[in-house]
Write a structure and sequence with these properties.
The structure is a homodimer.
Chain A: H1 14-30, H2 36-42, H3 49-62, E1 65-66, E2 75-76, H4 78-88, H5 96-107, H6 113-128, E3 131-136, E4 144-153, E5 156-163, E6 166-173, H7 180-193, H8 204-214, H9 221-234, E7 239-243, H10 252-255, H11 258-269, H12 271-282, E8 291-294, E9 306-315, E10 318-328, H13 333-352
Antiparallel strand pairs in A: 1-2, 3-7, 3-10, 4-5, 5-6, 8-9, 9-10
Chain A binds a DNA duplex (30 and 30 nucleotides) through α3.
DNA sequence: AGTTAGCACTCAGACATTTCAAGTGCTAAA
DNA sequence: TTTAGCACTTGAAATGTCTGAGTGCTAACT
């Protein structure tokens, strides 16, 4: 009997590894528990079903396999998947076609970060067949580094703000005409007084001071500064986009009934998922590798039977977001990993240098 | 027998109307077919269940009611709902609380149109308990009305474009430093040559002409113009946002199993829904009333058993989008209509005058 | 020792059958 | 014209049966 004896990964014989790998890959392919007989006939393993049964029993007691019920085949456990990903998996080479498809599509709508991310998740979802998601992390200290004012006509102007490399704009209208000089005066004033300040650091005395400086056009200050504060506050960054939610339905064994509901709610609430991205990644100055969270490893209980594969997106050394894929634990890991890796890299390059560049 | 005798709405007796109304409201409330007995005991109708049965049989032959199967209660048909909405419904007064909640929440994140729409759908969804959606219509002729260039540092600038009242920006980097004069020269050149042109109207000869005009810095022209074209093309407008997809699951009778899949696919594909918004509304210079599409009335077959309630959003006379709610045909119409009406109005006001204003 | 063949056992899922309750249509009485 | 009563219909739920896939174990085999 021996009861349970976990955490002895070194002692896996070569044949056990081979069997485990075969089981996992068969299960990823079929989505059903896989039995000993299937293995002998479809995967080339040089022993009989009985032997495999023995090995499977051992693998189960080691915690790498599970049995849904007594007379069913085996299913990989989370530990099994983890082992598989860490040491058994064959790395997937994207084909020329795939790379080309990624590249051309990614270029299509590269106007702004949002646009890029949107196309990226669309791509990720359509090419992996899982639900894709992208996050912009919550920023710690949000400040405007540069202000600019554009007069569009007599009584309206556009305030352009550069926040951490992202451009935000805001319309300003006035009931009375605004003089050319007034707007440029306001612009320099904003740059001098407000650049580098967080919303919390913009105080009433500061605003009153600015009103004094503006002289005749002091009435402009209040609405503009208010607007700036709002924009800064609104720019918490924390945003999450999805594509291909309907693909969850391709895996009814996992996302049938209640589960689906949980998942949709998770997507809608966004907060939990944002936390995963933010807490795990953004703070630790980790290297930018592809991260994989399997089932319980996720902090969010809803994702017990799901896997999250994602990779951060950087602009220089700055972390601006992350892109990934979420799906059932039985996921085509090698392909997804390669895909996300490539995509994230592509997006990073795109925002790195806005102008043309080939790879 | 008399067989079927439709389209005789005038001949509805007062009692029939009362019964139909009661049935519809009961069905909206309970979600199940409603029987004669239920009506006599729970709604105050001054006759017995047998009488009601007779009336129901007639209403059914007129096409206002349907019977899922022989021994079930009655369910309103689409024609029934239509009649109800057009002439039977009591209009819903939003409570002070509700109005206040809408107002304060709507103000929160009003930095840009996108932001406003996002909060608006979030609000719509949470306050109606249905899935909310907002669309930005496909623009017919997309042109840039004003260009502006901001130098952020020596070798990078931001190109600001005003497209139909919406601001779009784009980063431009250069490997060699750009002189102050060069950027302002480029700016005036862009405004003179490209404002008012669609992407298709920007031709090669035109670009070459601009390169001549730019003189020494002609290398800037190509990437910038290319970027402008991309931005214009990308700005087809057509965009669709959702909130509260998970609320579909509150109506499992309608969105159970296959149906849910269809619905999610519909949401993901976006195109069909965008068409509904665009074709129906954007072209006909219709008045800005709340529109209601019930079941088959929708062009999209997936929405057979759903209702779409929406209202356009205007900026002045310009149509900039629409906001609405989608849900099961058995929807709390009066409340939803009032809500969407108010919300759309609120959003319109917000973008009308960017600065402060109370209602 | 490790491997294989054979056999009894288990159990979820599919299918058939029964039961139940809700709601109707119709008829006859008020 | 309305109402009470009753026979009838029918989907949904409950129950029972059957089957096949897959296991664990034992005994023979290399």
């Amino acid at each position: 009997m021996e009861s349970e004896k976990r955490s002895a990964p070194k002692e896996l014989s070569e044949r056990k590894k081979q069997i485990l790998k075969a089981i996992i890959e068969a299960h990823i392919e079929l989505g059903e528990p896989v039995g000993s007989k299937y293995l002998t006939s479809n995967k080339h393993i040089a022993c009989s079903s009985a032997t495999i049964r023995n090995e499977m029993a051992e693998l189960e007691s080691m915690g790498y396999l599970e049995q849904p019920h007594t007379s069913a085949g085996r299913v990989p456990s989370e530990a099994g998947y983890r082992l598989y990903i860490d040491s058994l998996i064959d790395s997937y080479r994207l084909t020329e076609r795939e790379i080309e498809e990624l590249r051309t599509n990614l270029r299509k709508k590269q106007a702004e970060l949002d646009g890029i991310l949107d196309t990226a998740i669309r791509l990720a979802s359509s090419m992996t067949d899982y639900t894709a998601l992208a996050a912009k992390p919550r920023k710690v200290r949000v400040t405007v580094s540069h202000f600019d004012i554009i007069r569009t006509d007599e009584r309206s102007m556009i305030l352009v703000m550069l926040i951490g490399g992202i451009v935000k704009t805001r319309q300003i209208r006035s009931r009375v005409p605004i003089a050319e000089e007034a707007s440029s005066k306001l612009e320099t004033l904003l740059n001098r007084k407000l650049s580098g300040l967080t919303a919390a650091e913009i105080t009433m005395p500061l605003m009153m001071e600015m009103e004094r400086d503006m002289g005749a056009e002091d009435y402009l200050v209040e609405p503009v500064v208010k607007g700036i504060c709002e924009t800064i506050s609104a720019f918490d960054g924390g945003e999450l986009r999805f594509d291909g939610i309907d693909r969850l339905l391709s895996y009814p064994e996992v996302y049938g009934g209640e589960r689906l509901r949980d998942m949709l709610t998770l997507f809608e609430r966004k907060q939990d998922l944002l936390d995963v991205f933010s807490e795990t990644e953004m703070q630790t100055g980790d290297d930018g590798a592809v991260k994989i969270y399997i089932g319980r490893e996720n902090l969010v209980k809803t994702m017990d039977n799901s896997t999250l594969v994602y990779k951060p997106i950087k602009r220089g050394d700055l972390l601006v977001g992350a892109i990934g894929v979420i799906g059932p634990t039985r996921m085509n890991y090698s392909r997804v990993i390669a895909m996300i890796d490539h995509l994230s890299r592509g997006v990073s390059n795109l925002i790195e240098d806005g102008d043309e560049r080939s790879d």
